[in-house]
């Protein structure tokens, strides 16, 4: 893992923990180099046939495949492991060697997505499953051992364990996803192309950093190959077109609670560049299913000096830097 990515993952974990209000927990419970050693451990996974193993922490971030074992050294009542894969992957989670007491209030729940500050990604509107089907509760699942497969590149596990020496092992695997739709970026800089081929679906690419986003290609409303190409329409705003790209900014991860920063519905290239000074910046492709839509963009972290000067409580105009 390159040093930059490592530093970014660390930053990511720290920002996650502060989002969860758990930073004090980390400070109190981990040696000061704890997070660094965690990330360097992640680096040791080199070859494909080597099964990576390490202990799971009460607050953890997993970016590799492997076996992660949690053993409670004291009652741990609010633990969460965030799992993230590459944009073009989904995550398979499997529990085994589970030794917990469901009747005493212990639990392990897997979630198809992330929950941060009470908000969910992907939002209820964008995920293919209803909310209750996105949770897999080990204690109420009938099958021996529970497993879960995510619909996007993020998933998580919540757990509460009261008794000393109780625990479980989590097996994390990544599977290829040929049509990634909702995506959480692993880092505050990069580039991505989102393609939506003839599906009535909305897809969000979420970057939980303040970033500058530059659209490099936007192709909307292309007719099916066996249809006549329609005349380029000129819309006033994007509402009439059906298919468009939204840039959203906000301080939570639920895209349905975020504020629109810009709507883009014209197919041309090298068009938009925008700074979004929020905790979460999203590129969202809204598709009617009539067309093949394609949007490419690049993004980079905003410098401290580029962030909005006044941190108002009101969300109005909070996200637009310029
Ligand atoms: C996609 O988003 C648009 C605008 O928010 C909404 O009208 C439409 O119903 C959504 N489509 C799906 C499949 O959820």
From TrEMBL:
<feature type="signal peptide">
    <location>
        <begin position="1"/>
        <end position="23"/>
    </location>
</feature>
<feature type="disulfide bond">
    <location>
        <begin position="238"/>
        <end position="265"/>
    </location>
</feature>
<feature type="disulfide bond">
    <location>
        <begin position="278"/>
        <end position="319"/>
    </location>
</feature>
<dbReference type="InterPro" id="IPR056177">
    <property type="entry name" value="CRF-BP_N"/>
</dbReference>
<protein>
    <recommendedName>
        <fullName>Corticotropin-releasing factor-binding protein</fullName>
    </recommendedName>
</protein>
<dbReference type="InterPro" id="IPR008435">
    <property type="entry name" value="CRF-bd"/>
</dbReference>
<comment type="function">
    <text>Binds CRF and inactivates it. May prevent inappropriate pituitary-adrenal stimulation in pregnancy.</text>
</comment>
<comment type="similarity">
    <text>Belongs to the CRF-binding protein family.</text>
</comment>
<keyword id="KW-0325">Glycoprotein</keyword>
<dbReference type="InterPro" id="IPR035914">
    <property type="entry name" value="Sperma_CUB_dom_sf"/>
</dbReference>
<dbReference type="Pfam" id="PF05428">
    <property type="entry name" value="CRF-BP_N"/>
</dbReference>
<dbReference type="Pfam" id="PF23541">
    <property type="entry name" value="CRF-BP_C"/>
</dbReference>
<dbReference type="GO" id="GO:0051424">
    <property type="term" value="F:corticotropin-releasing hormone binding"/>
</dbReference>
<dbReference type="GO" id="GO:0009755">
    <property type="term" value="P:hormone-mediated signaling pathway"/>
</dbReference>
<keyword id="KW-1015">Disulfide bond</keyword>
<feature type="disulfide bond">
    <location>
        <begin position="58"/>
        <end position="79"/>
    </location>
</feature>
<dbReference type="InterPro" id="IPR056178">
    <property type="entry name" value="CRF-BP_C"/>
</dbReference>
<dbReference type="GO" id="GO:0051460">
    <property type="term" value="P:negative regulation of corticotropin secretion"/>
</dbReference>
<feature type="disulfide bond">
    <location>
        <begin position="102"/>
        <end position="139"/>
    </location>
</feature>
<feature type="domain" description="Corticotropin-releasing factor binding protein N-terminal">
    <location>
        <begin position="51"/>
        <end position="175"/>
    </location>
</feature>
<keyword id="KW-0732">Signal</keyword>
<feature type="domain" description="Corticotropin-releasing factor binding protein C-terminal">
    <location>
        <begin position="183"/>
        <end position="307"/>
    </location>
</feature>
<keyword id="KW-0964">Secreted</keyword>
<feature type="disulfide bond">
    <location>
        <begin position="181"/>
        <end position="203"/>
    </location>
</feature>
<dbReference type="GO" id="GO:0005615">
    <property type="term" value="C:extracellular space"/>
</dbReference>
């Amino acid at each position: 893992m390159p040093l930059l990515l490592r530093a970014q993952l660390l930053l990511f974990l720290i920002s996650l923990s502060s989002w969860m209000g758990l930073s004090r927990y980390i400070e109190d419970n981990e040696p000061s180099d704890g997070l660094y050693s965690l990330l360097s451990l992640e680096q040791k996974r080199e070859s494909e046939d080597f099964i990576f193993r390490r202990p799971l922490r009460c607050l953890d971030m997993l970016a590799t495949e492997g076996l992660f074992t949690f053993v409670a050294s004291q009652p741990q009542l609010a633990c969460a492991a965030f799992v993230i894969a590459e944009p073009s992957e989904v995550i398979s989670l499997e529990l085994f060697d589970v030794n917990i007491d469901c009747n005493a209030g212990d639990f392990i729940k897997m979630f198809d997505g992330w929950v941060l500050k009470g908000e969910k990604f992907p939002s209820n509107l964008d995920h293919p499953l209803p909310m209750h089907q996105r949770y897999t509760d080990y204690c109420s699942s009938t099958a021996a051992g529970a497993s879960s497969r995510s619909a996007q590149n993020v998933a998580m596990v919540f757990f509460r364990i009261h008794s000393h020496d109780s625990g479980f092992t989590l097996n994390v695997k990544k599977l290829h996803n040929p049509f990634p739709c909702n995506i959480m970026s692993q880092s505050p800089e990069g580039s991505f192309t989102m393609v939506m081929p003839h599906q009535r679906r909305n897809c969000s690419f979420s970057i939980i950093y303040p970033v500058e986003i530059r659209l490099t290609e936007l192709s909307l409303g292309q007719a099916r190959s066996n249809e006549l190409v329609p005349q380029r329409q000129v819309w006033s705003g994007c509402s009439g077109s059906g298919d468009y790209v939204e840039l959203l900014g906000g301080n939570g991860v639920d895209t349905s609670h975020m504020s629109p920063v810009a709507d883009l519905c014209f197919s041309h290239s090298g068009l938009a560049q925008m700074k979004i000074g929020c905790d979460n910046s999203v590129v969202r492709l809204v598709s009617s299913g009539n067309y093949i839509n394609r949007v490419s963009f690049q993004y980079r972290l905003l410098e401290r000096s580029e962030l909005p000067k006044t941190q108002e409580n009101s969300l109005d105009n909070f996200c637009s830097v310029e």
